[in-house]
Amino acid sequence: MAGVGNIWKHETLFRCRLNPWRTVGELDDEALTNMITTARTLLQASVGKDGARRPTMYVYGKVGQRCRRCSTRILRQRQGRDIRWTAWCPKCQPGEGPSG
User: Is 89:77 a contact under the CB 8 Å cutoff?
Assistant: First the structure.
């Protein structure tokens, strides 16, 4: 989704228990709707909309640390040739990892 940014991409996918290496075409309408709703909620909270507190970070900036949900170590991998990294919990966000 354009405009979400790397931080909230990580956190949205974690909260939705979606593996970051899945393609959009693999997701059903319910998963997509949930992902969009979750991203919107996180973005609004991140700027303090309606007095919301900034969301807790579960995977962003937590590489090598234990997952707060399951205690598995948080992993990271580059997004193709991009300079950015993607962090995820392989147990909470099951599925195949990145190729290459």
Answer: no
The number of domains in the chain is: 1
- The answer to whether residue 77 sits within a structural domain is yes
pLDDT digits (tens, 9 = 90+) for 51-68: 777 889 999 999 999 999
Domain extent at residue 21: 5-88
The structure's pTM equals: 0.89
Euclidean distance between CA atoms 31 and 52, whole angstroms: 24
> Cα-flanking dihedrals φ and ψ of residue 30, to 5°?
-65, -45
What residues contact 29, with CB distance under 8 A and at least 6 apart?
none
Measured distance CA(92)–CA(19) in Å, rounded: 8
Residue 15 falls inside a structural domain: yes
Q: What is the CATH number for 21?
A: 1.10.8.50
